[in-house]
# Entry
Amino acid sequence: MGAAIIADGLGKRYRLGEGIHAYLTLRETVARRLRGRAIEAPRADEIWALRDVNLEIEEGDSVGIIGRNGAGKTTFLKTVARIVRPTVGGVRVRGRVGALLEVGTGFHPELTGRENVYLNGVILGLSRRQVRRRFDDIVEFAGVERFLDTPLKRYSSGMYLRLAFAVAAHVEPDVLVVDEVLAVGDAEFQRRCLGRIGELRQEGRTVLFVSHDTGAVGQLCRRAVWLDEGRVRRVGPAQAVIDEYLRASLPQSTRVDAVGQAAGSLGALAIGVLDGAGAPVDSPRRDQPLTFEIDFTTREPVRGLDLAVYVADTRGIRVVNENLSDAGETISGPPQRYVVRLMLPSLLAAGEYTVGLWVGNDDVRLFHGDVLRLSVLPLPEDRDHRYGLVRPTVRWELETGSARGDDSP
Amino acid sequence: MQTRPSASIHFAVCRARWPSPIESAQDVLDRAFAAPADVRRSLMADIAQESSRPPTGRPEARDRWVENRAPSGWLPTLDLRELWSFRELAVVLAGRDLRVRYKQTLLGVAWAVLQPLVAAAIFTIVLGRLAGVPSDGLPYAVFVYSGLVIWTYFASGLEGVSQSLVRDRDLVTRTYFPRILAPGAGTIPGLVDLAVSLVVLGVMMVAYEVSPGAELLLLPVWVLAAMLVLLGAGLWLSALNVRYRDVRHTLTFLVQVWFFASPVVYPSSLVEGSWTYVYALNPMVTVIDGFRWSVVGAQAPGAPALVSLGVTVVLFVSGVVYFLRAERRFADVI
# Structure
């Protein structure tokens, strides 16, 4: 064993505006030149997406990269995958890197499923011969046999995803770099993605995994790197780093607006935690029943919209994971405001939790992510932290009497 | 799924016979079965020897370090070996462009023929008949169509190549590959159209009783020259286009001016004396003259061809250098 990835003094500078106005027109450049200003933007316009990153990742290790939006997670992956050239320093990788920054990279809507499998497979680093050999497996895995000669543009989004993932799953790089591919697709899709990544890890491949879902990172990764404003804030065992990150970053409050992260047909989205009496609460006692109130608006008519709330402990184990559809309900209707409440009996053991939310339907996921942190307080009479995964309100019974073994007449 | 031991097999074999460590054991086996008996025996012996070794940790195939370092120095380097190892990607990208081009069209590849054919008809009537433009003793229709065939390859190729990176933005921002492959692959699909057009040109030559000489054997040279000019100009334009989308709008004019600066609808013999050397600064002058000479037996290109050759080399080399320098920031600005 040795290092598989070594970053030394790695830094990447972006000029602000490049992300927004992706390119300058010639006129702008000429105008700048004429005004005597250099093309180089002044320093105030620059941000360092990565700064002084020194890391060594062991071969066969699985490492999660966590951090807020804009902390440099994706940029780091992109430098490892050689998509982006560093501004200073560098990163060395041993073996072949497979980057899974999105599924279906290079898919072309006009081409058939078959043609796209070849195209995508080669883009992901297989040879055509390797694709040919795996072709049947890929198709079977995706379950699209009947549509192989149909142009991709006629595929449903579910089929599209399955095919894309099937190709990606059959590529076996030495170092796998995964970025938020889980952000698309339904729960089943996510499960398969995570399963496949777990398999690759078990085969001894090095896995770099970026996700907002700290739970997934906790389950998949042995170690974690916490990036904060482009710098490495902490490296260590996944669980310890995640705990620290969550304590420092997730808002602990009664209500969180997740609008900024919502996408597509969702307008606004907020989630709040209420106690049994309907009052907002951030640190409930463990014997209190809780109500999760999700308040959102839609901008387009929705059909079959499902909603899930999960509560995960700091190890990423979902102690609670409830879907609206489990109760036989889904949401369909015109663009309007919806308020959904999930009533949870007193159940959680004392400790730190993250509350996550998922909104979507069979095909599209509109929102997914950890949105707030919840501290469940112990009862005064609780003696220590010796408890199981959950702590519902239980009742003990004790009977006393004469011994059973007595030979009473 | 491959199992571990087989992955270690392939290294020994491919280190011996193949520059790319990216192949799997299966690839080697596949090749072995297609190879002559003696090669096969030695390959199988290699494999047997490797297999008998207990699998120890990770296969050494992964010992190749790949570095992504901040650019240093002005002059970029081009890793030809790496380029070669990505050849399949070029093939697949070119194949995709070919397939996509005529999907959902009624006439399909007939468009490749129709476009220059209609243009040739118009030029024959307007310039050949009405204006009486000379055509070096050839029937004007054959003269102009032969020019249009190679010109169309160049002009439509230039459009495709200059858009290649921007069109494949997804690939540039999400996967690694030597970026130069994108414009490189863009020069290939037009070759199919060119081949079809050549068949039509052949038919036309039979109809007009024009027969080619032994110069026909040099045809690939001129096609290659056209590709080189196309790639040289295309490297500049595709890299510029990443940063300045003006390229797309400028291209229409550029192609138009270039068209009239090239001997497509008139013979280069109209340019006389030392002006021919100035004229040959446009490398397409020599490409078109040479192509015409090869196929329909017009005047052979003379000494000014050397000027064109020089310009082509400069255009190509500077294109590669500019492209590789610009490449460093493609993913940031595209």
Remarks:
- The longest helix of chain B spans residues 140-167.
